[in-house]
What does this fold into?
Amino acid sequence: MVLVSTLAVYASGYLGIIFLSVCLAAGLYYLAELVEEYTRLAKKVIRYAIYSTLVLHALYLVWDRLPFLEVGVGVLAQGLYLRLLKQFPFIPVASMDFVGSVVVLLANHLLWMRYFYHADEYHSLEYILGFFLVSVWLVPFFYFISFASNDGVLPSSASPSGASEERKRQRSALLGMFNLAKKKREEILPKVPVLGDMGASTSNNVKLL
It folds into this structure.
């Protein structure tokens, strides 16, 4: 029985998952900083993504003859996402638009899962993931990244001063999480000395001798 090679394969698989998670976290952090710096561009990207998804849903209904209920809930979700852009990047999580968009997102997700589960035609896992990525997850992912821009964006003149001051004091959940992970990493992992510092310390030791 090839026990050692099997253990090595499983260990490499888990290491690959860890490396993939680290790369994903670094990519999310970089995207969050980009959204924080280019807020207006991010708003345009989200708007174009919503319009593109609406066009896709129209083609699903007319060309592919997909069920009206699933397509209708998807269109409703995109309409709620479009309403959220009115207050972008300061999106109150207690507003009816935000709560409604989350509820419709879950309903849209469950409806499409039910459709693919009971579909007569077989669809591969890659096909289903690609469909969900473009039709269900794309715009919510952009909004998730855009929540990180609440810290560095200057409040607009249309927003109330009290609300803007309160929003400026709020820490972004996404950037705060990554910054906390970075601090914990610096506390746990030992600091590797730089070559210049090593040379300086060595010369100091030679002088002392």
About this structure: The two ends are 59 Å apart (CA to CA). The CA atoms of residues 20 and 200 lie 38 Å apart. The first helix runs from residue 3 to 37. The chain has eight helices and no strands.
